[in-house]
């Protein structure tokens, strides 16, 4: 078996996420109970309404806490990845799974990143929308007719590309995409035009923050959202993370690379099964597990142990 851990990104968050792990596995509690930048992750994850949890400054550290808790439990069962990757904020969890940062640093970095992205987009009237059924060239043709600032910002899987930017420009580009034959438009539940040039200020803040963070050597290859390829070396991590917040996410390329390397099984860690859906459309022969609940975790561990 060649196994990859995939970590969910923003938009997958759900109220109450991690609550059953907290109740049934006491060793996960420190990930939720440690205050981070004045945030009560326990309250945010378990008790907050979805609109509060979905604020970027809250979503990111909460998703990190969930990811670290589940990764810890998998490791306790002797389950480690051959490769890791994550969607946007999930890339930080992928680095944690590869031993580059510990769980506490993971959550702190995501709290900082979430606040930086929130501050950068404050007062901005922006939007992100997934376009289904068109290729990049056709979407770029549609964008060219929209006026305003709108960009391709996520290449998720064949036939699904996200655009983001000024709300009026995104709406105009979306209408043009429909005219060009798009099957559907899906507005995303995010608070800014992430992975576009609008995030330059957040990128600069991350540069300052990451300069003082100590990263350990990678224990397994980690795939970069920016390039779609594995990090070439440990020294490239900070540079690519700084770029990541303002550059498009190349997740389809990541999945194609994992398939080419012989990965035959993935475990998606995080609420929902969004990434499993991307895998199905990009590399359908890869076996997929998704861990959102304790029941998912225990079923996954049982299957993985049986497969040896």
Task: Give a quick precis of the structure.
The chain has helices at residues 19-24, 29-33, 41-46, 50-53, 56-76, 90-97, 103-121, 136-144, 167-179, 200-210, 236-244, 251-260, 274-282, 294-307, and strands at 3-7, 83-86, 126-132, 150-157, 160-166, 184-187, 265-269, 287-291.
- Given this structure, which CATH class of the largest domain is correct? Alpha Beta
Q: In one word, what is the shape? A: globular
CATH superfamily of the largest domain: Malonyl-Coenzyme A Acyl Carrier Protein, domain 2
CATH topology-level fold name of the largest domain? Malonyl-Coenzyme A Acyl Carrier Protein, domain 2
What ranges have pLDDT less than 50 throughout 5 or more consecutive residues? none
Strand proportion, as a percent range, falls in 5-15%
The count of domains is 2
Radius of gyration from CA coordinates: 18 Å
- The total strand number stands at 8
- Average pLDDT metric: 96
Task: Tell me the helix content.
Answer: 40-55%
Number of helices: 14
**What summary fits the major beta sheet?**
4 strands, parallel
**N-to-C SSE string, H for helix and E for strand:** EHHHHHEHHEHEEHEHHHEHEH
N-to-C CA distance: 8 Å
Structure description:
- The chain is of the alpha/beta class.
- It contains 14 helices and eight strands.
- The protein has helices spanning 19-24, 29-33, 41-46, 50-53, 56-76, 90-97, 103-121, 136-144, 167-179, 200-210, 236-244, 251-260, 274-282, 294-307, and strands at 3-7, 83-86, 126-132, 150-157, 160-166, 184-187, 265-269, 287-291.
- Strands 2-1-7-8 form a four-stranded parallel sheet, with helices on both faces. Strands 4-5-3-6 form a four-stranded antiparallel sheet.
- The longest helix is centred in the N-terminal third of the chain and has 21 residues, at 56-76.
